[in-house]
Structure prediction request, 286 residues.
Amino acid sequence: MYKRIRKQLNGMLGTESQPRGACSGEVHVPDFEPHRHIRLLTFNIQVGINTSSYHHYLTRSWQHFLPHRRRIENLDRIAGLLRGYDVVALQECDGGSLRSGYINQVQYLAEAAGIPYWYQQLNRNLGQLAQHSNGLLSRFRPLDVCEHRLPGLIPGRGAIIARYGAEDDPLVLVMMHLSLNKTAQQKQLGYIHELISQYQHVVLMGDMNNHAEELLSGTPLKEANLVPLPETAHSFPSWRPERALDHILVSPSLEIRRSEVVSYPMSDHLPIAMDIALPKGYLEAF
Prediction:
């Protein structure tokens, strides 16, 4: 009896050892090409809830548990934005439960935006109630994609790592949603740093729940030599941005051609966008 209950509890908390997400497959996904520009976007979509005031956290809180007729309309608007990007990192997606109308939101956004490859990481499985997930959307075929459970006192945080280009010198994109707790962030970023330490061309993107100065000076990322967006790149709350919680951090080998906080308030976070250029030597390797 104990083992059965424990197994059910582990499943609900997302502590199972096997991945529980989903993937589009790669049949119709174009190969990675040596474009000089790659358009990146990270967006915490808050499961399709349009929040534009602090009081909405109370009055619209039920939408975190129950379906809402305007959720699909909100997702369609988000998809309209995603069409302009090559690789997208999504946080706070639902993988197909009651509250989303049993729709895998990562898959829905990929198909609505016309992006051929998608990967959903299921981090916290609450069965019919909620399927807390991260997502990757890509116009290019990755070398490989793997998911990692991030350490923390409360299970349910994860990262997706996608590698592109040359096997011996890949472009490595890490999509994540970090904990609010600073102690947990230290452990999670230590884990991430170990994963990326051997690579030269790295992009970290996602909702990191902390400011770049703290991330790059007070955590294990201080050894990674990553380049942040300007300190004024505030993304939260979307209706009055005062905090820079969402980030795209890149290796010095990747030239930042453009970066911005996108004024698109469809969630309680604003999306962050960046265009990067690959090194000339890297391009010539293709």
Remarks:
- The first helix runs from residue 2 to 13.
- The domain at 2-284 is CATH 3.60.10.10 (Deoxyribonuclease I; Chain A).
